[in-house]
């Protein structure tokens, strides 16, 4: 049973105490201060714990965000706590509930348990709420002690949005009592309407096809807002699980916060989906946005990061006139649960609220058991000791999973049928991380936490469309990993120490050689430094020289597709699919579906032969166990190297 914290017990639990906000202090007899608190993109991060790494963290967790809530409430005479979607999926706790425990009638989802404990006033659905199917979603939100609203998802369409039969209520009007500056109480009717990206029909086609329809966000808002006003809403808050994207409206936009803010009658915008912070520098220079003041189209707006990293705050000074309540002033901030130093160190600003941990303790322990248990098997070792010198099994499984996922996502779209390539890079490959900083999973069981060893970062999957000539240039940029060598000379250093391993993309689906006698075409920042260089030789697709005019889909991640590493063909303009799923989640799903994976490297890339030439490279000492299994190169152990590494010679 959920115990909702009283004001006094929460203050005791969180140690919160604060002075009133200036709006509460300055409010006159006809004015009242209303504070809106937003969480967004929690993704089941109730505990401050990284289940993949199997360790506690200070940068996430609704239990930590909770420490801000009553302090925030105590600064205002009136406050509402709202969640902006993506709460049911996104970490192993969510997967454990969905795939293992299930949601039988009467069972509580742990994130709903936590939200009930904290006394949420309302929530909207995000796109990830649909990842486990409609029965799971509806069973989970049935346990909420607060309304869950979304206006643009319908089980049956009507002639207009207001005629639709929506999956959950489209909006709610809360009868809120506010205290004005003279101490008098007044009713204020706050309308809350929810929205989700229309792309859920693409992202979760298998769950939603034939079961729901989705409308455009702005079109839906324009239909419902007048109805909400007619029903007596004084203030209308758009709880929009959508990002801050283009200012110019386009039908069925995924990131529609700016056009949505222009809809007459909407007073406040809660945003999310982007996993960013607003107000703040992330959106500086965006048309229609004041990134410092926290307004979109002049209206107060907030985006509270992700995983509980921030509490979004919008303070409204309401003023009562003959026409009703209006907004006389507003202040916006995103309050963090931690600070990051110049050296990237993390300093927590709050501690977890114990009642939230207590409410979900059993679920947390069950999740720990889940991530430590096998979800599949590998019949080959997954290691990265030789990932920078030969095709590698730890990179291969990432490529395989990305290809498997993108094939499903593009089925039924205009891009179905185009050849799919997959770009992936080794993340744990020694370097500054030291001689133990390598992926190393032995054949046999794979636990979910092993996936963090395969894929370090919480990137999301992307697909870009480029031609064969750009595939070649992408690989030329990647080949900057290596120093130029002189043919016929012995024991030259192979690796460029200034080139990060995460920029060494291997592209699966094509075959090629890298000619080290040529200089790198691209410099360390992706600039062209040797325009006539051509390290990539014998580039083929399906056994024939690649057609430089042929179109290809390349599966990659959001960092690369958005311009990270400055790769040709990957600057954001070529992206044709932005997945709602992380690469980690895709790898887990791939392993679960396959049962046993066979990620043996297929040696689709090698070094071009250079007669009488040898090079040296260093790797972790434990790699000796796999040295005789490396495909495509002849390597010879040379003994210990500096700082605990082990040296090998490659005969080119």
TrEMBL record:
Its cofactor is a divalent metal cation. Pfam families: 5_nucleotid_C, Metallophos. It comes from the Bacteria. It catalyses: a ribonucleoside 3'-phosphate + H2O = a ribonucleoside + phosphate; a nucleoside 2',3'-cyclic phosphate + H2O = a nucleoside 3'-phosphate + H(+). The keyword Transferase does not apply. InterPro entries: 5'-Nucleotdase_C (IPR008334), 5'-Nucleotdase_C_sf (IPR036907), 5'-Nucleotdase_CS (IPR006146), 5_nucleotidase/apyrase (IPR006179), Calcineurin-like_PHP (IPR004843), CpdB_N (IPR041827), Metallo-depent_PP-like (IPR029052), TAT_signal (IPR006311). Residues 35-276 form the Calcineurin-like phosphoesterase domain. Residues 1-27 form the signal peptide. Residues 393-568 form the 5'-Nucleotidase C-terminal domain. GO terms for biological process: nucleotide catabolic process. GO terms for molecular function: 2',3'-cyclic-nucleotide 2'-phosphodiesterase activity; 3'-nucleotidase activity; metal ion binding; nucleotide binding. GO terms for cellular component: outer membrane-bounded periplasmic space. It is found in: Cell envelope. PROSITE patterns: 5_NUCLEOTIDASE_2, TAT. Belongs to the 5'-nucleotidase family. NCBIfam families: PRK09420.1. This is Trifunctional nucleotide phosphoesterase protein YfkN. The gene is yfkN_1.
